[in-house]
Amino acid sequence: REFLELVADLAALAVDQARRFEMLRAGDQERRELKARARRQERMAAVGEMAVRLAEEVRNPLASIAGFARRAHRDMSESDPHREYLEVVIREAERLEKRLRESLELAAPEPPTLKLENLNALVQETLKDYGETLVRRRIRLLKKLAPDLPQLLLDSQRLRRVLQNILERSLDLVAVGGRIRVESRKSGEFVVVEIAHDGLHRPGDLLDELFVPFRSGRAGAGAGGLSVAQQLVHEHGGEIRLKSDGEWNTVIAITLPVPDNQDRRKVGAERREIRRDRRAGKNGG
User: Basic and acidic residues bias: where (predicted)?
Assistant: First the structure.
């Protein structure tokens, strides 16, 4: 019997040592991952700072190019064969101006201007801007907007920009004749807006890297737009997530909280105090 107890003690000791060894190994792995993440963030910060400086230097020459192109376009006759080339220059210059503006706003954001808004109305207004593109490319729009959404305290211009950036990325990836789905719903204490498409999903893409500012690639502009969208949604106390779901290769979900929505009129310290009081009330109850 003493022998069996000794064996059991030795086995328990071996199991404990193995568990401690595994914990040490996991700790070392976590430290290595944290160091790698810190190095990556430092590199991204350096790249971001350089990109902001470049954007500031490019902005004025680009505005001059766009301004002179618009002026030449106005003075050109409708039958001039070069007119369509100028239209391409103007369109691309405006696109670049928008990206530069977003990059600078991402680096030094202004406080949002908040008021009660109907989120479904913002979605509808944004979709109207892309009606011609959808028809021209024969893209089928599947729209399902819940009628019972509560009004939320939002910056309408910034939320419209979020929707625009996501839709532009979706249109960039959807083939002619493809599908885009836009849906809104209330889920518990949150309002959710999903924009999904059945465009090709590029293998090797890490979903979280789609939100890294200044990312390059075939759809680099769209990915950069997602980083801007993510920051704007965070300003509203919400989250933005990206996933795949069956026939929809990419689903981008914007989640905005309904409780405490009014508290965003208040400054940060005052909002935190309100939340602490509410949590204390719940715990006391």
Answer: 262-276
Q: Could you tell me what percent of the chain has a pLDDT over 70?
A: 73
**pLDDT tens per residue across span 163-215:** 988 898 888 888 889 999 999 999 888 999 999 998 776 544 545 445 555 45
Can you tell me the distance from the alpha carbon of 148 to that of 182, in angstroms, rounded to the nearest whole number? Answer: 16
Other C-beta atoms within 10 Å of 198: how many?
Answer: 20
Token pair listed for 115: 């008021």
Instruction: Find, among 187, 99, 171, 92, the residue nearest to 138 by Cα.
Output: 171
Q: 141's torsion region: left (phi>0), alpha (psi -120 to 50) or beta?
A: beta
Asked if 160 and 125 count as a contact pair (C-beta separation under 8 A), the reply is yes
Report the 3 state secondary structure along 203-233.
CCCCHHHHHCCCCCCCCHHHHHHHHHHHHHH
Q: In Å, how far from its chain's centre is CA 186?
A: 20
Q: With CA atoms as reference, report the closest residue to 129 among 170, 177, 168, 94.
A: 168
Reading across the β-sheet that carries 179-187, which strands appear in turn?
140-145, 179-187, 190-197, 248-257, 239-245
Is residue 242 within 8 Å of 173, Cβ to Cβ?
A: no
Contacts of 132 (CB under 8 A, 6+ apart): none
Indicate the pairing of strand 140-145 with strand 179-187: parallel
Distance separating alpha carbons of residues 4 and 2, to the nearest angstrom: 5
Instruction: Give this prediction's pTM.
Output: 0.59
Per-residue pLDDT reduced to its tens digit, 260-274 = 554 444 445 555 554
Whole-Å CA distances, 6 to 13, 15, 17, 19, 61: 10, 14, 16, 20, 83
Element (H, E) at 132: helix 131-136
